[in-house]
Structures
1.
Amino acid sequence: MGLFSPGFMGRRREPVPGLPPGQHLVTDFPVLSIGPTPRVTPEEWRFSITSESGLMTTWTWDEFQALPQEDVTVDIHCVTSWSKFGTGWRGVSLDTLLDGVDTQAGFAMARSYGGYTTNVPLDELRGGKAWVAHQFDGSPLAPEHGGPARLLVPALYFWKSAKWLRSIELSTRNDPGFWEQNGYHMHGDPWREERYW
Ligand SMILES: Nc1nc2c(c(=O)[nH]1)N[C@H]1C(S)=C(S)[C@@H](COP(=O)(O)O)O[C@H]1N2
Ligand SMILES: [Mo]
């Protein structure tokens, strides 16, 4: 005690560019699921967006596949502190899906097959920042990682990226989703360490 200055023991590491505070890099792809993996075939899969006025737009798998597809490479950050750089996904931008949805809502609730929910400010789903992804690394998204399709919001902690996505409900109210009801942050920006509230 007192022999070394706080920085001397190397505890303050050189920041890794692109790595948010309190995170460490992994090269594998951990699976984090709160319950069993729902099995949804593309034939029975439906995805819908409901506006705050109750108007619903629904896509079948074929309709969803016929939409413009985007390939994105992004870094992902789990609140349990692992980050993975350069993950490659294929999916449909939320800008495409929200095109034609008439809304003044500020908030979105993502709902999954299996019952998981998570709330995201609608701003975080727009502007080329979010996708409904159905491929990872050039292959159909594995069931344990959220296949047939999952939400991908890489700018927020990964719990916001709902696996087995079934619907997005737009709302003027910011209701908490599953983890948010249990103390996780309503926003979840990894650069501001918005882990819990
Ligand atoms: N439906 C659903 N989506 C979910 C989860 C979940 O348990 N159920 N876990 C979240 C958490 S905490 C993380 S870190 C990521 C993990 O995704 P992965 O298993 O593909 O790594 O999914 C998120 N989406
Ligand atoms: Mo997570």
2.
Amino acid sequence: MISTIRNALQVMAIQRPHVAVVCLLLCCLSGGHSIPDPRQREALIRLETSMQTGGHEVLTDAEQRLDAVLYKLKQVEVMRADFPPAMHFFKARHLIRSSPVFSLLQKMPKGAALHVHDFSMVDVEWLLTNATYRPYCYICFTDDQSIRFIFSSRSPKPVPHCSPWYLLESLRAKMNTTELDNSIMGNLTLFTQQDPETVYPSQDTVWFKFEHTFRAVWGLVTYAPVFRDYYYQGLTELYMDNVMYLELRCLLPEIYELDGSTHDRAWTLKTYKDVTRHFKAAHPDFFGARIIFTVQRQVNVSFMTKTVEEAMKLQKNFPDIMAGFDLVGREDKGRPLWYYRDALSLPMERGVTLAFFFHAGETNLEGTEVDQNVLDALLFNTSRIGHGFALLRHPVAKGLSKKEDVAVEVCPISNQVLKLVDDLRNHPAAVLMSENHPMVISSDDPGVFGASGLSYDFYEAFVGFGGLRSNIGSLKALAKNSIRYSSLTAQQQEEALASWQRRWDKFVSENVF
Ligand SMILES: *[C@@H]1O[C@H](CO)[C@@H](O)[C@H](O)[C@H]1NC(C)=O
Ligand SMILES: *[C@@H]1O[C@H](CO)[C@@H](O)[C@H](O)[C@H]1NC(C)=O
Ligand SMILES: *[C@@H]1O[C@H](CO)[C@@H](O)[C@H](O)[C@H]1NC(C)=O
Ligand SMILES: *[C@@H]1O[C@H](CO)[C@@H](O)[C@H](O)[C@H]1NC(C)=O
Ligand SMILES: *[C@@H]1O[C@H](CO)[C@@H](O)[C@H](O)[C@H]1NC(C)=O
Ligand SMILES: [Zn+2]
């Protein structure tokens, strides 16, 4: 009898989990025993596990064996006194690198990276050792202890609040190169060997430095030859980390040449397309990349209107490479989405397709105008929500995101480094993951955070907020989600999923013994 009820309830649980839980609880309460029925307890536990991300994945024998291995490895990790997800990533990185769970995650085919930014996708060491060692590279030192770069065939014009330009090559010949290069590195990244809590005591201090790193790399990465190689290097790093597809958020700035001439936005977009094609030619199992055009969220309404119009034009002219549109920059200090409501309604008004991929809810300013962004993003039919860190505090928005199947792009390391959460076990995505809310894992600005690829963020998600309960099914679901929630067409998704599945099967068979 009990098992009949249980079966019925389990069928129901799949359709209406909350009702089923209530019924099960009532059954337990009305049983009249002082000790709750262990079988029903077991059923409730299984019900809850089945509700998590990947809870309904059917696992092969080999996958189950790999899961058992992973579980043991994770158990060992959780017991550690220096548990990496509980620590700041800068302090945890070397521990993560030596973790056997991490090495498995590196080998795992992770699908797609759907939330990464153009000028923070590459390890800054590449910028130092490759970009700054090219000829004609000039550097100047700003009044506020930062640096700027420019490549120029002539002596470049001075810029305000900066020292005269020095040819880097000559400077290196005169100065201690190690010290100079270390100070350049220090300006290109947030990563530090010092105590990160001391160096970055508040959101303001960390964002101040974060924005400075972008200004410092600007002159390097917007130089045409570096621009192409940088993007190629970014694809290489993702590929090496077993990521097969990318959706990159790009400012599409003017790109300059050695003689000072510049290229427009269409050229920049076309260059992304060309480099992607070259990369694919050299790596046939890489699926490709698409671009989400972004604009700073401080601009005025007329500028936003102009930019949205340009985005519609680019979308029309480059439908295969261009995925859509987004706003970037510190949400707390920027204008809320609602401020731009007229501009953002233009595509709909004109019957033009322009998909939105809004950053929203990357904040802990509860109850402010900015905090409404998650709901507004959904009202503007966003295709995904970037971060959605505040989503749990908005039950209506959360419900809509689930109902409309709008995935949240969770970037754990970014949220920790930018000081929204300290201990990644407490990341709000723990809740989202426990109830299979549509979500993907991404890395935001791996270059600036001292990470690379997706594996570090997968580690924090799987070992940190996934807890012991997340399993191989969760990983499988997260990887598949990254393809399913991409901007690829249904047919492309099918192709990508088939290719991912082949790699996945290979990964599983190579890692069970
Ligand atoms: C930088 O990388 C590019 C592309 O891999 C390579 O062709 C070039 O020689 C490198 N330059 C330096 C200075 O390392
Ligand atoms: C350059 O500076 C580093 C670090 O301060 C020091 O260890 C090294 O000896 C110096 N090299 C030279 C050639 O002075
Ligand atoms: C950035 O560069 C300036 C100028 O060389 C230097 O004084 C400063 O120490 C560097 N910052 C870091 C964090 O290395
Ligand atoms: C809007 O911003 C642009 C670019 O910063 C500026 O050129 C323009 O004058 C501004 N317009 C208004 C109405 O403030
Ligand atoms: C969002 O989609 C709904 C339903 O398709 C539509 O009615 C609405 O006008 C759209 N809103 C915007 C701002 O695109
Ligand atoms: Zn972002």
3.
Amino acid sequence: MGEKEKKLRFDTKLIHGGTSPGPSGATKTPIVQASAFAYDTAEELEDIFRGRAVGQVYTRIGNPTVDTLEKRLAAIEDGIAAVATSSGMAAITTSVMAVVRSGDEVLSSSSLFGGTYSLFHVTLANFGIETRFVDPVDLAAVEAGINDKTRLIFVETIGNPKMDVPDIAAFAAIAKKHGIPLMVDATVSTPYLARSKELGADIVVHSTSKYINGTANSIGGAIIDAGSFNWQSPKFPHFEQFFRKYRSFAFTARVRKLIHKDFGACAAPLNSFLLGEGLETLALRMERHCSNALQVARFLQAHEKVTWVNYPGLDDSPFYEVAKRQFNGRFGGLLTFGLTDKAAAFRVINNLRLAKNLANIGDTKTLVIHPASTICADYTPEVKALMGVSEEQVRVSVGIEDIEDILEDFAAALEEA
Ligand SMILES: *Cc1c(COP(=O)(O)O)cnc(C)c1O
């Protein structure tokens, strides 16, 4: 589509951006369920390995179906390139490992998805990569957390389950001032709410398993290179060879030609097809997720058995203003609320008929979970407090069902609790 594509609006780009016609005019990306790709001559394959010609070799390195998904994701995030991975955690691990080396430090928001917290706190620490955790709302603490060893700043657009909304543009300004790349996990906001590159993210990561897939039928992840960071820096000598050859594509080149290839957390062709199907309806679904979530939040706030509601779209939320500005008046599909105690939270979850009790977000279906006893059960009480996890808390990923059915489900569940 080239130049013409740039003029497309976001909702149209979800459907047409980065796509190319399939064989015989097929309007769908073919699922190339193949591990390897054959060439007639030894010379052709040598040319591809040497980088003198472009071609598929082996699905861990590249696959036409995965390639199409990558082009589409790059188009909707306005990135220069994207790499699809087997999961959101694979995207985070691969992209972080591409930036940092042993002895380096990561400065991360303390309000994190559980897997990312574990990666930083335990796994990377075991490889000599320390992470400093800071409250993402306290920008003075963010800046004070940077030192000579800091090589990456990591933040989520909406903390889960804390529901805090950091000011991404302010983070970007700090990162830029110190010559450190900003990596943003935009899973919870999705590209529909936040244009991460415009806000100043250098690298955007997603768990595409959630809202992008939208119907909970495949796990996937994505790394999008905004092309904005200057990797020709004494802080990043390990990017030198990639910068020399690939210039602004140095990050993607290091990911693709080294870290992603070596770790091997590649996306599967069938999953990439399904994720691409989900992408087409992202805007429509998010619109409904957002409007339903706001109505659920208001309903819960007015309910006598509910002690508190945390949703950035409520105008008494401390994050209302920044979320409104950053997300263009939309606030996402995720909220948390409190009952009197854990037993009451369990009763409400057990009473719900429509909402499913499971560990996921971003499905068409309304989902609930008690974070303290499940996804955050391994945290110490101090970490739970830091992450905004409490015993009386229920997290809701509001689905796109008819709002009346969702509200009736919660009304009945609270009534009986
Ligand atoms: C789910 C999630 C991840 C991890 O993604 P997987 O696809 O489950 O590996 C990372 N970040 C956030 C914010 C998530 O919600």
4.
Amino acid sequence: MNALDLALLRPRLPSPLVPLGDERFARRGLTLLLKRDDLIHPELPGNKWRKLALNLEAAAGRPVLTFGGAYSHHLRATAAAGRLLGFPTVGIVRGDELAGRPLNPSLAGCAADGMRLEFVDRSTYRAKNDPAVLARLLEYAPADAYVVPEGGSNALAVRGCVELGRELAGASDVVAVACGTGGTLAGLAAGLAPGQRALGVPVLRGGFLGREVRALQEAAFGGPRGDWTLDERFHGGGYARTSPDLDAFTHDFEERHGLAIERLYVAKMLHCLTTLAEEGAFPPGTRLAAVVTGGRDAY
Ligand SMILES: *Cc1c(COP(=O)(O)O)cnc(C)c1O
């Protein structure tokens, strides 16, 4: 089968690394860089490009079946890749109550890109890694379908994110990244240079992510890699969850910097990083980098 040529999509790699002047950091002797992964590709932005690239090469043009919630950036990116590169896509969506209702903009975009959407109840969705359940879900896809797990995070995805760390090697002391599945953090940490630390900010319910990141590194590399920690304080109980505090922070940040920021993940990570800076969590002289894993209006 013909290999897919992702280079045809002209990704902007390495992504730009730009200083951001922000007095809340400067006042404490800290410097801040933004790693603009949101600029990698207009339809496959940020970590979604890095996580999909090796998987799409492995799928080599076969249909791709994958999983996500109603607002999944991963489903949206997979559907766009299918349209741009010419392979069929199937999205298994959490929540059968969504079937028969008007699609939200994210899912409508998936459908417009030709993704077949199948809505499944939450207990089926939760059991999707069970071989019998997966076999049933695979009936929605052609026989030779390639399966990408929820959020796109498998060993190939983690390996694809190593390059993100390499692009940042030596450029900062701490690299902050928002986490859903933790796949990006797992790869990023592996690509950093000695002396650098990755700081993961989970946006889902806390408590389990450290285990997941270790398991993903085990699958990708056969053992732990790099220096990483989590700050679970801002997980806020879910992707879509927000608060007046976070909204105020986000508006203020956008006005200060003239930059629209993605709400589900990036705003929470920047809020966490700014709060840590203001609390004096980093010694003066610390160089910080924040990964902009996605763009505001991509979807
Ligand atoms: C998917 C996504 C994440 C989470 O990435 P994981 O590898 O699942 O941790 C973070 N930020 C944005 C903008 C995303 O779309």
